[in-house]
Amino acid sequence: MVSNKKDNVLAVLSLSGGNDGLNTVIPFNNGLYRDFRPNLGIPEEQIIPLKDPATGKETGYGFHPSMGPLIRFWEEGKMAIFLGIGYPNPSYSHFRSMDIWHTCEPDKIGNEGWLGQAIKELDPSAENVLTGVNFGRGLPRALAKEGVPVASVGDLETYGLLTGIQGEDQRTEALDVFGRMYSPTIGSGYALDYIRRTGTDALKGADILATAPGMYSSNVEYSATAVGQYMKNIAQTHLAGFGTRVLYTTSPYNGFDTHASQAQAHSGLWTDVSANVETFIDDLRGHDAMDNVTLLMFSEFGRRVGDNGSGTDHGAASVAFAIGEHVKGGFYGDYPSLDQDKLIEGGNLEHNMDFREVYSTILEDWLHIDPVPIAGNFTKVNFL
Predict the structure, then answer these.
(1) What distances in angstroms separate CA 224 from CA 115, 221, 356, one per listed residue?
(2) pLDDT of the chain, 384 residues: tens digit per residue
């Protein structure tokens, strides 16, 4: 008997720079919010209230006014909001904090990404060079693991490595030239083998991915921004049926780092993200291809509770989101206290949910992988 069951897919949108969780999911019934945000507090009449999707009752929390396109997924019960998410002894460095989220190693420098390890478990023999695909420049640490091929695509429409070189013999020769260039530094045998192997994997991935736009048609229109184009690329790759299980992208570098002019910047950022996430989900739903996809959105940390006049400085606990047809919508975790004596150093929110709890749930309940070797031994969050 033929099974029509599709493998589950994880899509990730990383919000680079430290999203201000306090002005994203707003505790507007808490008077301390207004006290701490005299300049950046969102007027209550502009906040989009979040009613309990099961009961319809007011929750006392609301979305930033620019997040209107996402409210329907909340009302459908398809959006999980993780409150107070973070990790112990928070780092306020973008690089270090993102590394921690990428490697699940808050106490030491990790060199293996949690999704790189997951891809290894999903495809141990690296039979599919497109099991994991990143959209954006460079390779996020989350996807890095020795021996795991991951295509990293700047622009799907023009993607390719040496794709202008015709013929396998000519490509192999070009890869050998690259290998000889690097061999004095790291050893000829290793360099030639490594570059030929990874280069060949990249060529295979490029050749396959290059066919995705030609197979794609849709009635929706993404914005021309980086987020819009990368979310479109994720949809194109998923719809092409390449067997990709992990699709990753990052918003423009440090865009959410709103030290100044936050009112305008944060609004613009969430306008962009919200509109393109809605388009992405509508796109996949229109192709009957959303049922096996879960989208995770996170940022490396939140912002300080008190504003600095026109912006906010690096903080600690924040919010994260998961959207999908199999997501059990609702709030998970508790909103961190705004009481002065409950804030941690520098006037920051204290986390009450470890991000590895969410990762563990995704790994075990969505990707069907043992989470302990990757994320550690954490209690799962029952959102899937």
Answers:
(1) 28, 9, 33
(2) 334 579 999 999 999 999 999 999 999 999 999 999 999 999 999 999 999 988 999 999 999 999 999 999 999 999 999 999 999 999 999 999 999 999 999 999 988 999 999 999 999 999 999 999 999 988 899 999 888 888 888 888 776 544 444 455 554 555 454 445 444 444 445 444 544 455 556 567 777 888 999 999 999 999 999 999 999 999 999 999 999 999 999 999 999 999 999 999 999 999 999 999 999 999 999 999 999 999 999 999 999 999 999 999 999 999 999 999 999 999 999 999 999 999 999 999 999 999 999 999 999 999 999 999 999 999 999 999
Classify each residue of 273-286 as buried b or exposed e, where b means 16 or more C-beta atoms within 10 Å of its C-beta.
bbbbbbbbbbbbee
Predicted TM-score of the model (pTM)? 0.90
CA 56/CA 50 separation, integer angstroms: 9
Q: Please calculate the CA angle 340-346-347 and round it to the nearest 5 degrees.
A: 30
CB 14 within 8 A of CB 250: yes
Q: What share of the chain is helix, strand, coil (3-state, %, to 5)?
A: 40, 15, 45
Domains of the chain: 9-155+220-375 (3.40.720), 160-209 (no CATH)
